């Protein structure tokens, strides 16, 4: 590895004297994902059926993969350099075009725009990284060479899907997503080139934790936008006010589940870990996509409750009952929190598992309760999980303090 004085100007300094924090241009880049999440959630709001739900999964995974690979690359690239800023702003424009294509991504015409945008971003970034780090870290450059080849393989299916008839597009894009998911699981293994050792990913744990937390805030903001916009178009009768409050309460509870204690614990855990790259892969790559999906479904469920608080099937073309969406959203978000907290060193939390089981049990009552009643019931389950987790943490902290005092007394 070359000395710091000879490293390319595109790279961040790895010196402890130079904080590795999220820059304003990166936060600016994240703004475009507010629009992307809005587009994805509104598609399911307008057509809450099984086919749209499946397409929502594919589109959410694609947009998440764009964001998370950008975040990993910015762990090494210096966002204060002019070229990197130009790259980020150009990527922002491409994401905006992709987001504009989302409502008709599975219709004629727009699918190719979405596919070309995704392929251009993923392949272009990987090739940039190969060039940017080759004089700084040969092993990392080789890793991004492998990444480029994997993206080239999935690009075939993305583009074929964009060109295929709309009814066949999902199959091609599902195959493309599968390749993109398998790549990191196999550590980008290729014949001759082999696989990437985790030690190559010399990441900043503080940066990864902060970046992911800020993105979760962005997605939580989408639930606020949906709730506020939908309520502003209503008359504001008592039932609608109750629906508005239940939607706001669900956003607050979901914020508490992630940010109350464990977000800061995640920062400390990854910084202290001897294998921070693997922690980042689990805690800040895989678990957050489950959280994001849960929040997208929550935004959809909140608007449907606001529009049809008493009708479990709000429209003639709604094939997924609102209550099913409510319970699925809360269950998926709880699962994401469970996986995240396990990845940062906590045990498998009984409180979260019990919450998921309680929500699963409520599916039996999905036809007996109105969507408004179900939303409040789901909120009650989330609140119970938060209280349970808080009390468990308090007892553990008290026990640890007593043990430290007893140890000090013995000494």
TrEMBL record:
- Keyword Transmembrane helix attributed: yes
Q: Name one Pfam family in it.
A: LtrA
Report the protein name in the record.
Answer: Low temperature requirement protein A
Q: Membrane-crossing residues?
A: 21-40, 52-70, 82-106, 112-132, 144-164, 170-190, 211-231, 243-261, 282-300, 320-340, 347-366
Keywords assigned: Membrane, Transmembrane, Transmembrane helix
User: InterPro entries recorded for this chain?
Assistant: Low_temperature_requirement_A
